[in-house]
Amino acid sequence: MEYLSAFEGNSYYGIVAACFVVLVTLVSTVYMGKMKTKRRGIEDQVGGEPGYAMRNARKSELLEVPSEGATTMAALFEQSCKKHSQLQCLGTRKVISKEFIEDGKGRKFEKLHLGEYQWETYGEIYDRVCSFASGLVKLGHDVNTRAAIFSDSRPEWLISLQGCFRQNLTVVTIYASLGEEALIHSLNETQVSTLICDYKLLKKLSAVYSRLQTVKNIIYFDDGEAAVDSNLSNDMSNWVITPFSEVEKLGKNSPVSSQLPVKTDIAVIMYTSGSTGLPKGVMMAHKNLVASAAAVLTVIPNIGSSDVYLAYLPLAHVLELVAETVMICAGMRIGYGSTLTLTDSSNKIKKGTKGDASVLKPTLMATVPAILDRVRDGVLKKVADTGGLAEKLFNFAYGRRYTAMEGSWFGAWGIEALLWDLVIFNKVKSILGGDIRAMLCGGAPLSGDTQRFVNICVGAPVVQAYGLTETCAGGAFSDFSDTSVGRVGPPLPCCYLKLVSWKEGGYLTTDKPMPRGEIVVGGSCVTNGYFNNKYKTDEVYKVDENGMRWFYTGDIGRFHPDGCLEIVDRKKDIVKLQHGEYISLGKIEAALMASNYVVNVMVYADPLQTSCVALVVPSRQVLEKWAQQAGIEFKDFSELCDKNEAVAEVQQSLAKEAKAANLDKFELPAKIKLLPDPWTPESGLVTAALKLKREAVKAKFKDELEKLYK
After folding, report:
1. Which homologous superfamily is 44-62+366-434+436-570 in?
2. CATH of the domain spanning 73-363, picked from 3.40.50.300, 3.40.50.12780, 3.80.30.20, 3.40.50.720
3. DSSP tag of 102
4. CATH assignment of 577-708?
5. Which pTM was predicted?
6. b/e map of 121-143 (b: 16 or more CB within 10 Å)?
7. Where is the AMP-dependent synthetase/ligase domain (predicted)?
């Protein structure tokens, strides 16, 4: 046997050792085989349109509540606050100093020196919620009025939300990065009477003051700022503008009884980020949010008060709202940060000081693919810049760990794995604090390469999830023990996932080896529909003969034999070219994003043409490094993006990734345009969750797209 070749002389100890290796290898192989064939989802018979339906293997019935009596968001929050009253709850970092630096081009950038986290207990937060709720009543609110929250994530955001819930007020959530037209549309459509916002957003409100029809009160997070500028006050003279702290004080001095909701009351009208046109307001009942939170609680192993969560995504996004609800249920600490202060090298962190992750040392984080892509690119750049033996050592260690993660005994296991952690990967882990035990990724498709890279370097599962605003993030959630990539896991225990055949697109539930079709979600997490938009609601929401609500997602998926879902396409992204070939824009974009040159890409296809084209935002660091090595001269990045050599280099890289993804020849963009400026939520070209706003990009770069077809 080959296992014996390492033991010369066939000594007794050599034979024993060899047998031990054989035994452990066989056990490992059997174990890995069981892991790969474990049933995570089970086919089930349900009502509604015929299709292939699946439920979570953990539960025979759908979950609706995390604990007895917690049927609403208000009840769930109160239960947890009373149970964990002495434990730390919400934390923020104190700003020690601010300074502005110039980049040599006249642009100024703010740099922050932030201190340690300062905490309030669950009991203290609950008291603040009750005070704020009473203050709202004193300002004239009742169940017939709506309040909106227009702010970045922070403790006061959550306090405002729960304060409204204690008086059964429906909360309208709006991204802080939302453009003026979308902001006006959201507030006017829902007839908001009170707007709760950051102090820094008052100027944005002042600019649209005359176009807001129903707003009467503004409550702003004061943060020790001076009183509102008199010019702003004059601009918004018909509004009553009150500091958040004053509303709390008003309610604390004059408490009123709560008017608690029931589970069918609308808790939130959440405005989507509007990837196509104006945003739609999704009506979420209390029972919808509670069901999703209850389900997630069951699939995160050993979650409890010893965990620490880093909150930096927008709470106006359903992923973050449900995640923080789950953490509250578990009695965890939630420390607030931002994407600009997340790590020691983040844009707003003063050199030599610590980012949020280094100070907080979280054990759990939610994230979106764009953030993980940045982590991967940053690590690879640092490794490449170091070069030499360090780069070779990293690549060797990564290869060994990769082999092990793919299920082979001949990778880095046991003592060897600990050695590589000590020498290589602990340095990468420290970027996010060093204590991460799991990361939840959702909001958009995550590439398998990035998932595996972060998984290996951080040393913790990167758990993919699938859900939508319309399903309160309910959908699919990967098991922590599932080491595969590219899948989003089995159905959450709060819902069914059903595939319905889409004959026009060629996706059928009878397909072999796996059933395929449009993904439809059913269960308590499915929301009530779109506010003031019955036509669109009736188009994508259905109620079956048993009274269960179903949401038709427009996404195309397939079920693996173990019951896990994989997203393979999207109905809206499919375009038929002139010669009859169908191409999926989203599938092509996902493949091209694997190129190190690509930060963002949008593929465009004119049905009257025989090929597609693409707009590419290249990585400045990667492209400039290539240009320097290739001897390409350029004055600035814009000039480099226009050079034929740079376009050819990026296009060659795209062709390589297209081939690796088995794309057909007609799916590879025939021409590309390199764009030097990044696409940000502020530019209106991507959503707050960094998903592509296809129509906005098409409109902005209409001329460039037309030139690509000439």
Report:
1. Luciferase; Domain 3 (2.30.38.10)
2. 3.40.50.12780
3. E
4. 3.30.300.30
5. 0.82
6. bbebbbbbbbbbbbbbbebebee
7. 112-531
